[in-house]
Amino acid sequence: MSPKPNTAPVFHDLAPELAQFAAEVHAGLAHCPKRIPPQFFYDAAGSALFERICELPEYYPTRCEVEILERHAGDIAARLGTETLLVEFGSGSDRKIRLLLPALAPRVYMPIDISKAHLKQAARQIARDFPNIAVHAVCADYGELRHLPHHPPGLAVTAFFPGSTIGNLEPLAARRFLHRIAGLVGPGGWLLIGVDLKKDRAILDAAYDDAAGVTAAFNSNLLRRMNRELDADFALARFRHRAFYNEHAGRIEMHLVSTCAQTVRVAGRTYAFGEGETIHTENSYKYGIEEFAQLARGAGFATREVWTDAQTMFSVHLLQVE
Ligand SMILES: C[S@@+](CC[C@H](N)C(=O)[O-])C[C@H]1O[C@@H](n2cnc3c(N)ncnc32)[C@H](O)[C@@H]1O
Fold first, then answer.
1. Which CATH number characterizes residue 315's domain?
2. What average pLDDT does range 2-17 have in this prediction?
3. Distance CA 227, CA 159 (A)
C-alpha cells in the first residue's frame, strides 16, 4: 500500500534575526552613499505590494516570464527530469511554480524566501493542491544559507530562480551566487533562471516608476518597516521614490530621496540627510542573452536552452553544471 499523502508543509525557520536587520541598516546608513539591501523590502506588506506590482500594466517581467513558462513547461520537465528535490530561490507567490509542478512532479519542493508569512501561505496552498509532493518551506536569506535543511539521500537537486531576482546582485556577487547553486545541484545538475533583458530605457523606467505609484509605495514601505521594527522616526512625506535606468551600469536603480535636510533616528542612532541625498534601495541588473550566458559560464554552468517571450523582453535560461 502506498503511503498516505501528507498535505501539511514542513516549515524550516532560518529567518534573519531583528538584530541582523538593525546591523545591516546601521552599516548601510553609515555608508557613503547610503544604501540598504533589497531583501529588507519584503515584510508581509512589502510582499503584498510586490504582488500588486506584478499586475501593473507597466511591469512586463511577470507577464513575459509566465508566457515563457506556460509555453515551455513540457520541454523544461523533459530536461530536468522528475522525482527530484526542486529548490526555488525567492519563491514569493506560487504563481510561477504552479505552471511547472504538474510536469516536473518533484518528490520534494523546497521554496526558499525571506518573507515569512507570505512563504507560509504559498507553501500551504501548494501542499494542499499537490498532495503527492512533500513541501519543505525554508524562511531564510538565501545568500546566507550554506546547506539545505532537508535532503533525502539519493535525490538529485534541481534549482529554479525566477523573477530576475538574480539582477538584484552586482554581477560579481551574482556569479558567486550562481557558483554556490552549481555546488548545490552538483555535476550535471540543472538551474532554470529568469533573466530580464536590456531594452529601451522608457520601458524600463516605466516598469519601476508606475503611474499608479505602487512601486513608490513598495519602496517607501521600507521606511515604514524601519519605523515599526527598528524604532525609527522616518517621516514618509520627506522622502520620495526615484527609479531610473543607469545605462552605463546596465541596471535600474531605486532610491529614496530626502526632500529636505533632516536627521532621522534609527535603533538608537542618528543619521543626517542633506536635501536630495538618497538611500539606494535596489539595483536590478539587465543582461543581454550572451552576456548572461557568459556570467553563468564563469560560475560553472553551460547554457542548454534560452527561451524568450514573443517580444523578446525577458529570457529564461536552462543551465547545466558542466
Ligand atoms: C522580485 S521578487 C520575485 C518573486 C517571485 N519569485 C516572482 O518571480 O514573482 C523577489 C522575491 O525573493 C525574495 N527575496 C529577495 N531577497 C531574498 C534573499 N536574500 N533571501 C531570500 N529571499 C529573498 C523576496 O521575498 C521575494 O519574494
1. 3.40.50.150
2. 82
3. 36
- Rg over CA atoms, the chain: 20
Query: C-alpha cell of 52?
Result: 500588486
Q: How many domains does the chain have?
A: 1
Residue 2 has pLDDT above 90, yes or no: no
Residue 281 lies in a domain: no
Assigned C-alpha cell, 94: 506560487
- Nearest CA, atom 11, ligand 1: 90
- The residue among 69, 71, 298, 62 whose CA lies nearest residue 196 is 62
Q: What average pLDDT does the segment 284-298 reach? A: 98
Q: What percent of the chain has pLDDT over 90?
A: 97
What is the model's pTM? 0.97
Q: What is the mean pLDDT of the chain?
A: 97
* Share above pLDDT 70 across residues of the chain, in percent, rounded to a whole number: 98
Three-state secondary structure call for residue 46:
helix
Nearest C-alpha to atom 8 of ligand 1 is from which residue?
A: 163
Instruction: Report if residue 313 sits inside a domain.
Output: yes
224 CA → ligand 1 middle, Å:
19
Classify residue 22: in a domain, yes or no. Answer: no
Residue 305 lies in a domain: yes
Mutation pick for ligand 1 pocket among 165, 176, 193, 208 (CB with most ligand atoms within 8 Å):
165
For residue 158, what are the domain limits? 10-14+57-199+286-321
